[in-house]
């Protein structure tokens, strides 16, 4: 029993040294509970969904399906930074962009298949009706993926330097579930929380992707689409700059493989 106690004590001490991770875990639990609480507000939600001119089933199917792309994008760069592959690539004649794109291609192919299954089940089993604007869909998806790859690079850069967890991924995941218009419209939340939604790109991605999948033209979604374009134009190059800087800093300090 005493050995079991000391093993447990060791783990507690080790865990408690990562105070940022502890805080993020608590925040994830709190905001996760809030997300499902707002999702449960079905009576109010149905009236709000009249603004989108779609059913609750259509709203949820599209939100859950296309969140697959964003989840894949958000963890994309982190999956490539294990030291046994990262160092080998950095000493080879392979550019950083080529490495990231090559490492991510299969994940996006798989995510596309998953989305097709979601939409097919919605159409065949639940009567979801789609009228897909193909050009608009491709544009919105590209902007959403680009924005989240930017976030992924920021998170991966921080992880390379700190070796103690990636707060960016956790915070973006929280923001997506609570403020991103994935599982429920922001309008069902108190006004103080609604305002936050208008400052996160997830809100504009899920708002516009639902519109282009249900028959809206690019002109009709132009205000939200413009904001998403501007956010992507800022976050993607910023993420690349931060990731590149963190890589160079870790290489200079000799800490690149300290995982």
Describe the structure.
The protein has 259 residues and is an all-alpha fold. It has one domain (2-253). It contains eleven helices and no strands. It has helices at 2-16, 19-39, 42-49, 56-74, 83-90, 96-126, 134-162, 167-179, 191-197, 201-213, 222-253. The longest helix has 32 residues, at 222-253. The chain is globular, with a radius of gyration of 20 Å. It starts with a helix and ends in a 6-residue tail after the last helix. Residues 32-37 have low confidence and may be disordered.
What is the secondary structure topology, with strand pairs?
Elements: H1 2-16, H2 19-39, H3 42-49, H4 56-74, H5 83-90, H6 96-126, H7 134-162, H8 167-179, H9 191-197, H10 201-213, H11 222-253
Structural class: mainly alpha
Poorly predicted spans: 32-37
Determine the N-to-C terminus distance: 32 Å
Helix content: over 70%
Summarize this entry quickly:
The protein is mainly α and 259 residues long.
What are its keywords?
259 residues; mainly alpha
